[in-house]
Amino acid sequence: MSGLRGSLGPARPGWVWGAAALLALGALLGAWRWAGRRRRRRRLQRVGTVLRLFVYPVKSCKGVSVRRAQVTPMGLRSGDMRDRFWLVITEDGHMVTARQEPRLVLVSVGCDNGHLTFDAPDMEKLCLPVNVPGKNPVHNCRVFGHDIQGRDCGDEVAQWITTFLKSQPYRLVHFEPSMVPRKSKKIIDLFRSTDEVAYPDCSPLLLLSEASMDDLNTRLEKKAKIQNFRPNILVTDCSAFDEDTWEDILIGDVELKGTVCCGRCILTTVNPDTGVLDRKEPLETLKSYRLCDPSERHIYKTSPLFGKYFAVDKTGMIQVGDPVYKMIWE
């Protein structure tokens, strides 16, 4: 064919030109959305202040109050103390907590010159090397129905714990970096596949506000203590239960992701001063006004909510006095 059409090549059907236009429009929209995301700004809204920080080296034993702590993907660390990296187990590997042995809350754990220190009423102080000898056996343990390993910490500390609790033989195990952590998502589906823990119930961090504690104590005849609830981060300068609404927060250079509220159990009814399990308060009072919305009952069942679990998006250091910011994306 001669003429203009011939010089431009064969004629193209109309649908080809339409498809090309749609592709171009799609590319343009994609670029606009990408640019929009790039333009999003992070606005910080101050919502509180860090009042106290706690590390619980041995699950269910006393917490250690610290002024500053490193936030790792698996929870708080202060020197050689890592949060719930040690666990009391039965001889067949099942976890033991204050739910079964309430007197565990009377065991003080500290750290001195590469050793964990153990102290309890009517017991001699015991020092245990943080680094367990590699020749010690590794136990296959069960924590809330999930498998996890732990290296045995030796006969001396096992006998010390057994003597103090006066019930049956127990062992102490330590979670090591080479071991496989538990997946938080297998415990509560709302966690992400990247969220992992050693021996905590389900989450790297638990945050609670002082105002929530104060609100609860106005309803109790005998005031509860922060030790009843065992948070890692206690926040002040906010209203009661504000923490329930926090999703993305910034403390220092640490970014945390809110996941679920903490459903409470009978552990909260262990008196932290006497080691006696009450089974009633403060749990019954919490149930009177802190049950979840019916739409969330598949998550929390009948457990009252008090405090919120957080996963770690960005690691770093935090300290008492740090402002707590809610991150708002605009």
Give descriptors for this structure.
single chain, 330 residues, alpha+beta, 7-stranded mixed barrel, 22 strands, globular, disordered N terminus
- Listing every helix as H and every strand as E from the N terminus to the C terminus, the arrangement reads HHEEEEEEEEEEEEHEEHEEHEEEHHEEE
Q: How many H/I helices?
A: 7
In helices, the fraction of residues equals 10-25%
Q: Which regions contain 5 or more consecutive residues with pLDDT less than 50? A: 1-11
Percent of residues in beta strands?
Answer: 25-35%
Order of strands in the sheet with most strands: 1-17-16-20-19-18-22
The general outline is: globular
Overall strand count = 22
Average residue-wise pLDDT: 92
Radius of gyration: 26 Å
| Oligomeric description of these chains | single chain
- Largest beta-sheet characterization: 7 strands, mixed, barrel
The class by helix and strand makeup works out as: alpha+beta
N- to C-terminal distance: 58 Å
